[in-house]
Amino acid sequence: MLVERFLSRRPADPAARFGPGFASWLLGLAAAIPFMSQPGLFVGPVAAAHPALGAGAAAVAFLTAGLIHYALTRRPGARDTSTGPVAPHTTEEIPA
């Protein structure tokens, strides 16, 4: 949401339910699985080998999702809202 709010070129379309934000969230969640540490439920391979990194699952998910969303929405021309070339501003008076 922060990437969409502060780095996107055009406003988000509320009608788009499964756009780049949803895909980014899923990929961020998938990237965090190896770091998850919920003893008794699930301990990922990275968290099992290095218990101190188990607390970093949320940070991994947050950063991964943000970077993926940025990459998906900042492709050249993907979210360009410009209407074309802008005419140069002239200061000449127009005769009446």
Number of strands: 2
Morphology call = elongated
Query: How many H/I helices?
Result: 4
Strand content: under 5%
Strand order of the largest sheet: 1-2
| Ends apart, CA distance between termini | 52 Å
Provide the low-confidence segments as ranges: none
Q: How is the biggest beta sheet arranged?
A: 2 strands, antiparallel
Structural class: mainly alpha
* Rg over C-alpha atoms, rounded to the nearest angstrom: 22 Å
Percentage of residues assigned to helices: 40-55%
Q: Averaged pLDDT, please?
A: 77
The run of helices and strands is HHEEHH
Q: How would you explain this protein's 3D organization?
A:
By secondary structure, this protein is mostly helical. Helices cover 43% and strands 4% of the residues. The chain has four helices and two strands; from the N terminus they run H-H-E-E-H-H. The chain has helices at residues 2-7, 20-32, 45-49, 57-73; strands at 37-38, 42-43. Strands 1-2 form a two-stranded antiparallel ribbon. Strand 1 (37-38) and strand 2 (42-43) form a beta hairpin. Helix 2 (20-32) runs antiparallel to helix 4. The radius of gyration is 22 Å and the shape is elongated.
